[in-house]
Structure formats: structure tokens, C-alpha cells
Amino acid sequence: MDATTASESGPADAHVAHGPPDRSGPALPGGAAHVGPRVRALRTERGMSLSELARRASVGKATLSGLEAGTRNPTLDTLHAVAAALGVALTALVSGGGSPRIRGAAVDMELLRVFEDGPATYELYRMRIPAGAEQTSPPHHPGVTEHATVFAGELRAGRSDAPGLAGPGGYLEWVADAPHGYAAVGPEDVHASLLIRYPG
């Protein structure tokens, strides 16, 4: 999920973009200074060096260092890659920063709730995709599933090799530990809920 015009170098504001994905846009419109201490703490808990986390997440060491220092506002792809490498839910990195909004190349998400059921963690989002916009997201860690319920518009979503299509009242689910995407394929914006389940 990832879009906008600002670079991955500061806490500049972002906006939802139409058309092809702009992979350089920051994911957190309110800035990402609160993310760095969480990434550093989780990395340290796992006994992982900065270089090792950068390697596992396929993220540049300078980018990761800037993220930990609070000087870079990462793209959503970067956040997903770091969360997957650490084996945690996205909200383990971004919650508590005062802004429940997360932006991607096409998707604008508002975090509604995070809850746990036994060892599993769930994130519930309100999601909007502008008509004609689409994006591809990188894999989550193994076992993560996503569940979308459409309220308006026509959504194409799911694993990149087998996406599904749903209109108002429709529901899609997929295993999200492979590349997957979202698109508003009709003339209307898509309004939907997105539930992401992270296994324990």
C-alpha cells in the first residue's frame, strides 16, 4: 500500500494519488518519529543487528538507520518489509503516533481497532481506493491473511497471481504472505473494510 509525491526522507505530508504507484511516498502523513524507537526495540529484542534487519527486509541500511533515528518517513512498502522481517503486525511499528491514517500508492486506510484473540493479532481498517487507482503490496510474514468487505465501488484484490473481484456487499479473502494488490476497477471509488490477521 503506497503513494504520493514526497520522498522517503522526511515527515512531509502525503496524499492519495491516482494512476501508477509512486513508490517514494511517505506512509504516515503525520510523520514517523515515533516508529524508530519501536523498530530499534524490536530489533534489539531479537538480537538482530541493523545490517541483519536491513538484509532480511531488503531495505537499504541507510534507510533503516534513518527510520530508527526518526529522520525518515518510510513508504508503506518499507514498513511492511520491516514488520515482516521482525515477524510483527504493522501496528506494532506505527501505533501510538497520534495518526491512525496510513497511505499507500492507491489505498488510504484509517485504523479503527487492533485486538487479539489468543495468539493472533487483528488490525481492522476503513479503506478507500480512488476510482482507477491500484497498487501492489509486498508479502507479509507467513500465515498472514487479509479479509475485505466492500461497501461501495468495485474492488479487485488478492494475491497478484489470483486476484478476486467484489462489488457492494461482496467479500474477498486471501493469504497475504505473497505479493498482493488492490484496485478500484469501476467508475466509483471503493469504500471497504480491511481486516488483517497475523498468526501468533
For the structure shown, list the relevant keywords.
TransReg_Diox_bact_type; six-stranded antiparallel sheet; 5 helices; 31% strand; alpha+beta; 200 residues; globular; four-stranded antiparallel sheet; disordered N terminus
Characterise this structure:
- InterPro entries: Cro/C1-type_HTH (IPR001387), Lambda_DNA-bd_dom_sf (IPR010982), RmlC-like_jellyroll (IPR014710), RmlC_Cupin_sf (IPR011051), TransReg_Diox_bact_type (IPR050807).
- This is Helix-turn-helix domain-containing protein.
- Residues 39-93 form the HTH cro/C1-type domain.
- It comes from Pseudonocardia lutea.
- Keywords: DNA-binding.
- The structure is a single chain.
- The strands form two sheets. This protein has a six-stranded antiparallel β-sheet, with no helix packed on it.
- A hairpin with a 4-residue loop joins strand 6 (155-159) and strand 7 (164-166).
- The radius of gyration is 16 Å and the shape is globular.
- It is an alpha+beta fold and 200 residues long.
- Helix content is 22%, strand content 31%.
- It has five helices and ten strands.
